[in-house]
Amino acid sequence: MSLYMLPLAIGPWQIALIVVAVVLLFGGKKIPELMRGLGSGIKEFKDASKEEEQPAEDKKE
């Protein structure tokens, strides 16, 4: 593994540390709401990218 790829190597301890930090920052009750918002944002992004792929004459407004 080359030296510039080293920061991209995330192991189980790093993931556990990130999860603990997120729980401490946001609290256990706030995390489901954050994930719901993230999921809806991803869904909107996918829908918008699908609309861009359609030709202009296929769009009905």
UniProtKB/TrEMBL annotation:
Q: Which GO terms describe its cellular component?
A: TAT protein transport complex
Keyword annotations: Cell membrane, Membrane, Protein transport, Translocation, Transmembrane, Transmembrane helix, Transport
Determine the domain of life of the protein's source: Bacteria
Any one of the GO BP annotations? protein transport by the Tat complex
Return the Pfam families for the record. Answer: TatA_B_E (PF02416)
Segments passing through the bilayer? 6-26
The UniProt entry lists membrane topology as: Single-pass membrane protein
UniProt subcellular location: Cell membrane
Residues forming coiled coils: none
What InterPro entries does this protein's entry cite? TatA/B/E (IPR003369), TatA/E (IPR006312)
Under Gene Ontology molecular function, one entry of this record is: protein transmembrane transporter activity
Q: What is its main location?
A: membrane
Instruction: Please give the subunit comment from the record.
Output: Forms a complex with TatC.
NCBIfam families, per database record: tatAE
Tell me which family the UniProt entry assigns to this protein: Belongs to the TatA/E family.
- PANTHER family this protein is in? SEC-INDEPENDENT PROTEIN TRANSLOCASE PROTEIN TATA
What HAMAP family does the entry give?
Answer: TatA_E
Functional note: Part of the twin-arginine translocation (Tat) system that transports large folded proteins containing a characteristic twin-arginine motif in their signal peptide across membranes. TatA could form the protein-conducting channel of the Tat system.
Protein name, per record: Sec-independent protein translocase protein TatA
Origin species: Flavivirga eckloniae
Q: What is the lineage of its organism?
A: Bacteria, Pseudomonadati, Bacteroidota, Flavobacteriia, Flavobacteriales
> Gene encoding it?
tatA
